[in-house]
Amino acid sequence: MTIGSGLVELAGIMELNSRSFIKALVICLWCFLMSSLSHGSDQDVSCLRSIKESLQDPNNILESTWNFNNGTAGFICSFTGIDCWHAQDNKVLSIHLSGMGLKGSFPFGIANCSSLQTLDLSSNDLSGEIPSNISAIIPYVTTLDLSSNSFSGKIPVGLANCTYLNVLNLDHNRLSGQIPPQLGQLSRLKKFSIASNLLVGPVPQFGNSTVTAESFANNPGLCGYPLSPCRTASKKSYTGIVVGALAAGVLVGTVVLGLAMFFFVRRASMKKKEEDPEGNKWARSIRGTKRIRVSMFGDSVFKMRLSDLMKATDNFGKQNIIGHGTMGTIYRARFENGSLYMVKRLQDTQHSEKEFISEMATLGSVKHNDLVPLLGFCIAGKERLLVYNYMANGTVHDQLHQKEDGSSSLEWPTRLKIAIGAARGLAWLHHSCNPRIIHRNISSKCVLLNANYDPKISDFGLARLMNPIDTHLSTFVNGEFGDLGYVAPEYARTLVATPKGDVYSFGTVLLELVTSETPTHVIKAPENFKGNLVEWVIELSRSSKLKDAIDKSLVGKGFNHELLQFLKVALNCVSEDPKKRPSMFEVYQLLRAIGERYHFPSDSEIILPLDTSDVDNIQELIVAREEISYQ
Ligand SMILES: *[C@@H]1O[C@H](CO)[C@@H](O)[C@H](O)[C@H]1NC(C)=O
Ligand SMILES: *[C@@H]1O[C@H](CO)[C@@H](O)[C@H](O)[C@H]1NC(C)=O
Ligand SMILES: *[C@@H]1O[C@H](CO)[C@@H](O)[C@H](O)[C@H]1NC(C)=O
Ligand SMILES: *[C@@H]1O[C@H](CO)[C@@H](O)[C@H](O)[C@H]1NC(C)=O
Ligand SMILES: *[C@@H]1O[C@H](CO)[C@@H](O)[C@H](O)[C@H]1NC(C)=O
């Protein structure tokens, strides 16, 4: 071998090496980029990572099931105890780590799960104080369950700033001191318990929620309604009076006092009996404003006052509640002349009276055959009441899912009629109404049915009234889990309401109509299936088993072709990519084509507005319609 050839060979090796070096460098860089994309920038991943790191896990549950080396989109969603807003998106919706033997203090890293709605750490061995800045850590939770742990110290005042709480459970801990009275301001609370702690002092006064003595049981020194009255104040005056009476030495005095006490106690106990048996305390708080007139739209001859509404609903008694929606509770109002109306009590509107009235004026002018007509409204103190025409058959949700024998009596043609009418109403709101209205809260609970099972959409235009600052946040944090299955996947990311978001929600309603399943829980799905209705149907479609999604009671009655076409329209509506979803106008036309042979009567056709820019869509629509008609 010559020196020359040796050099050439050496150069060759060097060249090879430098090439592979660069290659390796590129790979490293790529790895780094990928890892920083899929991990570093991903807040919710770092949230779970820090929870895992900060808690001791003697049973190795997190250790064995929370594997962060994966990095595919949505990989954390399959972790034990984790639910995401959407299976392909690392955005945590709820954390359930109950009964896992976890030890340590409250994990601060949870702050990075910024869209968290449910936190359940119950039945573990967590200790230390509940952090004072808890409202900064979990600002949007609607359910917080820290029960059966060893948390100690005081209940932080800041908990009252978690204003979206519906469920708060702190029982079976070692919390001590007084309960911050501010907790009484949590106006959305439906379930509350701090039983079995070491608490003393007066309990907070919850205006409207259903907090009972059980919520406070087994604490050493709690007092005040609904427990026995706090002694300190009354004892003082009692002894004061007794000492006074003794000093005067008048026996008669004590007799009078005894009589007075007797009557006082009797009156108090009578008063207690009458205390809020129906949970309609608020209704009595507006009695003083009974004479207020209900503002009616149009030239209604019917003059109403608040007192008429109260009479017609038995003071908004429980027996007259016909529905709980995202926007508030609906009551049946029966007037003396036999006419029926619905009254909706809006939940938590925080707009000024002026803004509210101007919004009402707009909504009062929105009239269409497929919408529930708003007849009037009334402002009484903080209460906002809306008066609607009565819908005899309630909500589509109840018709589909609340049948005692488990199956719905709605026949297919009725379901199809409901879908077409509801689609027409929404298409009108999106395309023909001026100003255009995005509903934002479509669910089977806001499609109501009149005596003839004609669908009418309700709650349109109300989303804007619900939240003072971030109007677009209202559906996101309203705490109604029922509406969860309806939220479009992009919404959790962008929090911007769009017409295509409405289309997604409507697609879910269509899926409910054809499968008879609820959006969040699919009874027919295999046991290990964790997804919602949309995910289930998409899964079936992928494995060419779409037919299995259809409600069995509808199959084999001559509608099979329609059912399948309907299901396909629904699937288009719930496309993950908003751009792939049809517009509401297209949805209406597609459904109408499916139901053409029934000649459902329709007073109102939607005319495609002329200023629309999407001429291409019309072309596609015609093609799509032909496909459906002639397939
Ligand atoms: C990553 O996670 C996904 C979703 O859970 C799973 O299907 C896949 O097998 C995982 N990959 C690895 C390498 O663990
Ligand atoms: C939240 O995540 C970021 C990185 O995404 C991290 O720097 C920060 O420390 C985390 N915050 C908490 C409280 O863990
Ligand atoms: C809450 O307070 C703790 C210390 O008390 C701090 O480490 C943490 O960053 C705070 N979290 C937020 C979200 O403010
Ligand atoms: C709760 O919110 C109020 C008003 O926004 C604020 O002034 C107060 O500091 C907060 N309290 C805590 C403990 O975070
Ligand atoms: C009771 O409900 C009314 C109206 O929804 C609300 O304004 C008020 O703040 C509530 N009271 C309490 C103590 O939560």
From TrEMBL:
Major localisation: membrane
EC code(s) of this entry: 2.7.11.1
Record's bilayer topology term: Single-pass type I membrane protein
Annotated transmembrane regions: 238-265
Entry's localization field: Membrane
Entry protein name: non-specific serine/threonine protein kinase
Catalyzed chemical reaction(s): L-seryl-[protein] + ATP = O-phospho-L-seryl-[protein] + ADP + H(+); L-threonyl-[protein] + ATP = O-phospho-L-threonyl-[protein] + ADP + H(+)
Ranges where the Protein kinase domain occurs: 316-591
Signal peptide: 1-40
Family in the record: Belongs to the RLP family.
Gene Ontology MF annotations: ATP binding; protein serine/threonine kinase activity
Organism: Carnegiea gigantea
EC category name: transferase
